[in-house]
Amino acid sequence: MKNTPLSRRERQKQRQRREIISTALALFSEKGYHNVSMHEIAEKAEFAIGTLYKFFSNKEDLYKAIVTEQSEKFHETMDTALAAADDEIEQLQNYIRAKNTIFQENLAFVRLYVAESRGVSYNLKAGLDVEMRGKYYDLLSKLAAVFETGMENRRFKKIADPYHLAVAFDSTIISFHLLWLDAPEKSAFPDNPDEILNIFFKGLINQ
Which of helix, strand or coil describes residue 57? Predict the structure, then answer.
């Protein structure tokens, strides 16, 4: 069944919504969530203020749309990275590369969320947290399945619960990203995914 082509009006509405979200993200990232008004977003995007309210009931609703859409895009990318190979080590390499690419290509959003995730209203943050935790736990489960399959195929030693390995693995990558975000001149992110993999695959203690 073919999708019905969107009308010119629907395409225009989608374009307007994308422009509003893009403008809001840029302003939030530059000035902080609390220092930007809907009127400023409308002026920067060159839309009447009423156009913004056709799409979003208020600034919190707009912020939630940004976070939700970015989160969905991130997790789709990570799912694709894990599904792109059958070999467990290659899957982990793809995971690191994809997460690094997402981080570098979406710095405006990353900076916004890290800086403002505790600054928006409690009710909004609680709703976002529940939704994003669900997606994150789902991703961790898929990552854990890679470790579990690797153990079953005797690629990996059974040194820990696969889910715990997934948590440790992903947390290591996130730590590198946050350090780089805080001080890029001191904490360069490894270009070669094997540098991170070796933390897990190479024993620290000399036998």
Answer: coil
